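Support reply, case 0932

Customer input (verbatim):
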Amino acid sequence: MLAKIHNRVSGLFGLNKGIQQTQAPCVKETVYGLKTSDSKPVTLKSVETSVTIKDCIADVVATLKYNNDESAPIYTVFTFPLGDTIGLYGFEASIDDRKIVTEVQEKNKTVDIEEENTRDHVFHCTLGTLPAGKDARLILSFVIELPHEADGRVRFILPSTLNPRYHTAGFNVTSDDDTHVQWCTVPYRLTMSAIIEGYSQIKSVKSEKLELNVEVEQGDNIAEVTLAEEFRYDHDLTFHIEYHKPFVPRLIMESGNSEKDGIFKDDLLSVSFQPELKEMFTSSGGEFILIVDRSKSMTGNHLQFAKEALLVFLKNLPANCLFNIVSFGTSYASLFPGYSVYDVTSLKKALELQRSMQADMETTDLYKVLDHVLNLDVQNPHRNIFLLTDGEVDNQSDVISLIKKQTDQNRVFVLGLGCASASLVKAVARAGNGIAEVVHRKTQIESKVMTLLQCAILNTVSDIQLVWELPPDVTSVIIPTELPNVLTVGQRLHFFAFLSGVTVGKATGSLNLKAVQNKHPLNYTIPFDMTAKASSTKSKLVHRMAARTQIISLQEEEACASKELKDCAEFYMQNDLTLKQKELRQQIVDLSRHGNIGSNFTSFLALESNSQTVCGSIELRTLKEAVDETPVVMRRKSETKSTERKSVLDTVKRAVGLQDRPKPFKFSRMSYSPSEMQRAMTFENGSQGGERLPKRPMTCIEPSMAALTRRQQEALDQDDELFQVVYSQELPGNWSPSAQLNDLMNINDDKLKSIETIPGLVLFNDRAEVVYTLAVVTWLRKRKQGRKCEWSLSEMKAKLWLGEKGLGKPLEDILKEVHDVIMKT
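Our regenerated output:
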C-alpha cells in the first residue's frame, strides 16, 4: 500500500529536536490544531484571539484551550500552517504541570541545505502525553501582512485553523483565503478583540457576516473592535478596515529600544502605498507569452485547470497584441516562431493547441524554458509572461536567480494549479515583479486569471523613487533593499526603514515618494517626527514584520550567491563568493534570532519551564508528497503518481466519514470541451454569436454532505449565464445579436428598437452590433455586479470598441439611458 512519507530534512526552520516544520502535501491536511498521533482531533473548548493592527500589519495572539475527554491518556501533536504570509514568533504550551516555550537558535552548521527548496510550511510540534480529563492551553503569537482590496480597504481574516467549522457530521469546507479548513463535532467558544491604529483616520470597520462593536478614539485614528454577537461557526472571522484617503502613502513609526541589540534597537518606519489604477486601461497592443507546464506531474486535474485557464487568457487578450504559447516539460515547444498578432486566425490556431494539450512532456525543466523566453527580443517596452504550473520545480533558487536578472523588460505572473505551493509561485512572481494566484478549485479559474490579466493590461505606476530629508547624523536603511520599480493594480508598495543616530533636538524628517502614472508625475511628501514618542507594542509587530521581510529577501539573495558559487569556474572569484555567502547567512541568523522568526539557517528549540531542552522525537521537518515505498534512485517530486494522491485522499475521506456516501455532483461553468467552446466562439468577422453551450452535470470534484439545494442550483445556473454572455463576445470587443442571449438576458426586439430611439444617439456603421453591445454591457452591470472581476476586461474592450463608433454623446450617458430602457419590467 502506498504511504505518505515524511522526509525529515532541514526545512525552512532547520533541523532540531523539539519542533517540526512540515511541507503541506498535495492533498491538503484536513486536521490542523491539536490532534492525536493518529490524526484524530482533540476536543477544542475555546479560542481567545487578541489582534493589534497597525496600518496593514497585524499581530495576532491566539489562546487555544483543548480537553482530553477520553478515558485514557493520549499522545498529542500540534500543527499550524504558516504558508508564505505568517511570521510565527512565539509558541507556548501548558499541559498538566508542564510548560513548553520556544526560541530560535542557529542550526547545526554541518547540515547542508544548499539545495533545499521550501514550500508551504506547517509548524509541527509534538507535545507528548495529555492525561485523561486534563486540559492543554496553547498560545500562538505571529505577525501577518494584511491584503488589500481594489477599493483600498484592508482585509483581516483569522487563519482558518483558529476558526474550525462546527457540524454534527464532518465534512471539508472552504475558506475565504482559499484553504481547506477542518471541522469539529463539539461547539467551542470563540472571542476576538482588536485594536486598530491608522496613519490617517479610520472611516469604518465592517464585516459582511458579523455584527461588530467599534469604538473610535484619538481623532479617529484608533479603533477598538469586539464581536457584538455570538460567533457562528459556518464562516471565516473577517472584517474590512477603510482608511481615509486610501490611495496616498501611509507611514507608521515604531520606536526602538537603545538597550536592545540587533533589530529592536533602532526606530523603524513602515511605509505602504497602494496606487489607484482602476480606470487606466491599455486599449490594444502589448506582448504576452503564455508558458504552460505539460510535464507528467500535470496529469489529471492539473492539466484540465491549465487548459481552462489558457482558454480564459486567450479570450481576454487585448486586440492587436503580440502573443505566443510555449509548452514545456523536459524540453519546450512554441506555437509560433517568435510572435503572432492576436487575430481571428491566430486565435483559432491557439485554441486547436489548447484542445489537444496532454501532459506528455516528461519531467519539469522550468529553468530551460524561462531562459529561452526571457532572452527573446522584446518588441514593446514591457513583455508580460504568464506561467501556468503545478509548482513541481526542484531548482527554485536557480529559477529565481534567472528571473531577477531579466526584470528590466519582463514581468512574470504565475498561476499555480491544484496543489501548487503558494510560497513557491509567489516567490517566482515576486522575483519577476509580478503577482501570483493559486487555483484550488475549478470555480476559481476565471476570477484568478482575470486578476492576473488586469495586472498586466492596466497601466502602471513606474519609475518609483524615494528621497529622504534627514538630519546630518541620521541614516536610514531600507528593507527590502530592492524595491519594485513598477506597481500595477493589485500590488502595494510596502517597505521598512530603520533610522539610526536619532537624538533629542533632531526632531523632524520627511520622505518624498516620486513616481510616474499614465505619463503624469506623482509626488507625495510624508513628514514625521523622530523624537516624539512613537506608538509601540510589547510584541514590536512592525519590527518583527521587517525582520521577516528581510529574512525572505536575504534568503533569496543567498540562494543566488550559492548558485553563482556552484557555477563559478574561476578560482580567484570563488573566495569572494564564499565570503559573500557566509556574510549573508550570518545576517539571516542574526535577524532570525533577534526577531525570533524562523529561517533556513535557524531552528526553533523547545524548552521546558525549567529551561531544559524537551526530550523526545520532536523536530523541524519538511513533509513531501506521498511517494512509493519501493526504493528509487533520484526520484523527482514531479513524478509522483496520481494513484498515490488518490490513496491519501481516500484516507482523508474515511477519516471524515465520507468514503461510502453517495457523491452528488458539483457543477462548474468551465466544464465544456474545447470543441464545444470553439463552436461557441466567433472566428469570422461579422458572424453571429456561436452555439449556446450545453448545460451538463460535472465530474464530481468535491464531495458534499447532501444534494445541491434549489438555491445552490439557481446560483450555478447564474454562473452558466455569465459564462455564456462573456464568451459570446467577439474578438474586437462587440457582441452580435443572438436569439440565445436574448432569452438568457430577457431582452426582446422591442427593447432593442427602443435603444435606437434614444435622443442624441448617432448610429452609423455596425448599427445592430452597437445596439446589442450597449444592451449586454448594461445587463452585466445590473445583473452581475457582484462578480465584476470576471467581466471587467470584457466591459473595457466593449467600451473601447463603442468609443470608436462616434455615438454622438458621452458613452456613460448613453448607458444610463439604455439601463432605463432594457431594465423595465
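We compared this against your earlier run and they match. Two observations from our side: Residues 1-29, 109-119, 168-172, 611-716 have pLDDT under 50 and may be disordered. The two ends are 62 Å apart (CA to CA). Please reopen the case if you see a mismatch on your end.
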